[in-house]
Amino acid sequence: MCGIWALFGSDDCLSVQCLSAMKIAHRGPDAFRFENVNGYTNCCFGFHRLAVVDQLFGMQPIRVKKYPYLWLCYNGEIYNHRKLQHHFAFEYQTKVDGEIILHLYNKGGIEQTASLLDGVFAFILLDTANKKVFLGRDTYGVRPLFRAMTEDGFLAVCSEAKGLVNLKHSSAPFLKVEPFLPGHYEVLDLKPNGKVASVEMVKYHHCRDEPVHALYDSVEKLTPGFEIETVKSNLRILFDNAIRKRLMTDRRIGCLLSGGLDSSLVAATLLKQLKEAQVQYPFQTFAIGMEDSPDLLAARKVANHIGSEHHEVLFNHEEGIQALDEVIFSLETYDITTVRASVGMYLISKYIRKNTDSVVIFSGEGSDELTQGYIYFHKAPSPEKAQEESERLLKELYLFDVLRADRTTAAHGLELRVPFLDHRFCSYYLSLRADMRIPKNGIEKHLLRETFEDSNLLPKEILWRPKEAFSDGITSVKNSWFRILQEHIEHQVDDAMMAAAAQKFPFNTPKTKEGYYYRQIFERHYPGRADWLTHYWMPRWINATDPSARTLTHYKSDTKA
C-alpha cells in the first residue's frame, strides 16, 4: 500500500504543485520521493512508500537499467510476479513485485500486461521512447486511483482525490476530478510539450471471466462439474490459494475479526497457513465494538477457537461521533452506509497503528457482494435477478465497501488484503449455477457456509451465524450505533434544513437528516465534488428509504428483544 501521484503538462511551478502530493502522505509513512521526468520540465512523479516488499530497492518511480525509457509508479501487490518472472525468464534488478509490469510491457504491450497481473493495483506507466502514458487499475478497484484532465492536455493522477483538488491550472480554475474505472487501462499520447491526449480506454477484465493469468498459476487442477461436493472442494482449494498468495510480505500480518462468517474464515485459514509457513511471531486479530457488543463476543469465541493473540478495541458514543468529520475527509464520500460502517474500521486501524507492529491486515471485504450475503437477497425475485445484483455490487465495490476498507486503513499507514476478491475465486464462484448461490433455508451465503462445514476451521455457531447489520454488531445490546447516530443528528439538522435540501443539494439530494449531516461535512472538505458518488448504496426489491439492514423485515438481530 502506497500513495502515487503524477502530473503531465503542468503550467504551474512543480515545486508548488507538489505540495498537493503531501495530502496523501498517510498512505506511505516510510519514505517520500518527488522526481522530475528527464526532458519534460512540466512532468513529475510523487511517491509515498509503505515498505512491504524489498525494503532496500523498493522506492519509486521504478526504473531499471534495461529499460531507461520506462518510468513506473504503482500502488498494490502483484501476487504472481515470481511465477511470471520464472515463466518468461525475466532478469530482475530488484525484488519489487511491481518490476514485473516493466518486463511484461516491454515483452507484449499494455493489454497483455494488465491481463496477466494477479493482484490489486493502480499504476502510472510512462514510456518516453514511444511517447505514451498508461494508467491502469485492478478488476474491483481495491487500490484507488483518481485522475483529472483538462481540454488542453494537462493530466494529474493520484491515489486519492484529495491530492488533486487543490492543483492549479491556467485553463481550468476548477479541475474536474474523477475516479479511474476499475478493470480498465487507458492509453494516452505524450506530446513534446508534456501535455497528453487520451487515445483509448479499455476494459481488460470482467469479474465473470476466468483471468488470463490463470494459465500461469500453480493451483491444483479443479474438478469439472456442478455436483455439490465437487463445487465445495473447488471452492476450498481456491480460497486456500487466495490466502496463501497474499502472504507475500516482509512485514507483520494481522487480521480484522468481527466474528462474522467472512472475517472468521479468513482469520482461521490465515492462521493455519502462517503456522505451516513457520512464521515466528504470534498472529494478531483485532475486533472493535462498544461494551458487550455481539461482534466482540463472537470474535472472542473465534479467536479462542483458532488460538490468535486477540485485541479488543472498545469505543464509546462520543468517540464514534467525534470521528465522523475525519472519517468523511478520509473516505471522500458522503454515502450513508459507507460512513456508518467506516467509523469502527477507522478507529480499529488507528489502534493497530499506534499499539502494534502489524502492518499487512487481512479482512473479509467482498464476500457479501460475491456470495449474496446482504439480507435483502432473501427478497430477490429469482436466482437470475440475484446473480445480476451480485455482479452489479461487485462492479460498484470501488464506490462503497472497498473504498471504505482502503481509506480507513490507509489513513493510518496500513495495507489491507482482501482474499474474497481473488480473481480466480470470484470468477469460479460466479460461474456456478445461479440457483446454487442464493440464500437457502432462510440463511444467506448458504453455499459458502456449507463449503466449510466439515473443516473444523470454525465453531458451528460462528459458521452459521446470521448476517449482522454493522450498526448492531459493533454496539451495545442497550443501544445500536444506528440509533446513537440518529439521536445525535436530530439535534444537528432541523426540519427547515431538510425542507430546503433539494435547493441546497440538487444532486443526490439527501432524503434523511443523517444523509444531510454527512453531506454537509463532505461539502465542507470537498465543495462541489458531490458527483464522486454516483448514487447512494441502497438495498433492492424492498422500496428502502434507508440502507440499514434494520429496516428489513427479514432481519433478526441478536441485540433485539
UniProtKB/TrEMBL annotation:
Which top-level group of life is the source organism from? Eukaryota
Q: Spell out the Gene3D superfamilies in the cross-references.
A: Glutamine Phosphoribosylpyrophosphate, subunit 1, domain 1, HUPs
For this protein, the record's SUPFAM superfamilies field holds: Adenine nucleotide alpha hydrolases-like, N-terminal nucleophile aminohydrolases (Ntn hydrolases)
Q: Which residues bind L-glutamine?
A: D97
Q: What is its EC number?
A: 6.3.5.4
Site residues by UniProt (Important for beta-aspartyl-AMP intermediate formation): E365
What's in the GO CC field?
cytosol
CDD domains in UniProt:
Asn_synthase_B_C, AsnB
> Catalytic activity annotated for this protein?
L-aspartate + L-glutamine + ATP + H2O = L-asparagine + L-glutamate + AMP + diphosphate + H(+)
Query: Biological process GO annotation list?
Result: asparagine biosynthetic process
- Name of the protein this chain belongs to: Asparagine synthetase [glutamine-hydrolyzing]
InterPro entries, per the entry? Asn_synth_AEB, Asn_synthase, Asn_Synthetase, AsnB_N, GATase_2_dom, Ntn_hydrolases_N, Rossmann-like_a/b/a_fold
What residues does the Glutamine amidotransferase type-2 domain cover? 2-191
One Pfam entry for this protein is GATase_7
Q: Which residues form the active site?
A: C2 (for gatase activity)
State which pathway it belongs to: Amino-acid biosynthesis; L-asparagine biosynthesis; L-asparagine from L-aspartate (L-Gln route): step 1/1
Q: Which residues cross the membrane?
A: none
Taxonomic lineage from the root: Eukaryota, Metazoa, Chordata, Craniata, Vertebrata
Where is ATP bound in this sequence? L256, I288, S363, G364
